[in-house]
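Closing statement on the S-adenosylmethionine sub-project.
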Amino acid sequence: MGDNGPVNDARSTTQNLQPGDETAPERGSRLYPRVTSFRSRRGALTEAQQTTWDALWPTIGRDVADDKIDVDAWFGRSAPAILEIGSGTGTATTAMATAEPHVNLMAVEVYRPGLAQTLQQIERQHIDNIRLLRGDAMDVLENMLTSESLTGVRVFFPDPWPKVRHHKRRLLQGPTFAMIADRLKPGGVLHVATDHAEYAEWIAEAGNAEPALSVLDWESPMTHERPVTKFEGKAQLVGSSVTELIWGKSR
Ligand SMILES: C[S@@+](CC[C@H](N)C(=O)[O-])C[C@H]1O[C@@H](n2cnc3c(N)ncnc32)[C@H](O)[C@@H]1O
C-alpha cells in the first residue's frame, strides 16, 4: 500500500549483525535483517475495536513467533488448513471462511487495525473457523508452519511495489514460491489475484519457474470464489483489470 511511513525491516535491532556472526540469528529468523514486503503503518484501534480485540485475540489471534503452530489444536479440530497472506480488513477471509465451514482458515496480516476489523466481522457473524496471525507472513511460512501442512495458500492483491528500486520488496518472487510450494500438501493450491498488470507478469514468471508447482489439472481442494474487497473495488473504479493466477502442487 502507499509509500508513506518509515520502513519496518527490523534493522534497528540487528544492524550490527553480519551473516556468519556467532551472535547473529539464523537467516530466515524474524530477527534477521531483511527487506520486507510491507512498510509499518500506524493506526489506532477504536474503542469498540479494542474491546473486541481484548475479548477475542487471546483465543483466535497470535503474534508471529519462532515456534511451530499446532494448527489442529489451535482450531480444536482436524481439517484442511488454508493460509491467506496479507488479509487486509478481512473481507475475503470472512466470506471465504463462511463459504467453506469445513476448512481451518488462517490469515496473516501486519496491519493491526485491519486485523481488528476482521475480528469484528468474526464476532458479528459468529464465524468459528478463522485464526489470525499478526506479523510477517514470511516468518509464518518459514518458522511456524511445517512442510506439506497446507491445503491452500491465498494471496489477494499483494502490494505491487511498482518502482524498479522497490521490486526487491515484492512478496511473490522465487524464494517465496519455493517456500509456499514446500508448505503445500501434494495436490494443494496457490491462488493469487492482482490488479497490477506488470506485477501479474512477474508473478506468473516466478510461479511458473517453481518446479514443484504446475497448472492445476485436478479438482481444487478449495474454492476460488472471491468477494470483491474494498481494495479491489477501488482498483475497478480506475479501470484496472484483475489477473487470477492458480497453481497446484504436483501430486
Ligand atoms: C494491497 S493490500 C490487500 C489487502 C487484501 N488482501 C485485499 O484484497 O483487500 C496488501 C496487504 O498485505 C499486507 N502485507 C504485505 N506484506 C505482508 C507480509 N509480509 N506479511 C503480512 N501481511 C503483509 C499489507 O499490510 C496489506 O494489508
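The first helix runs from residue 11 to 14. With this model delivered, the sub-project is considered complete and its resources will be redirected to Aim 3.
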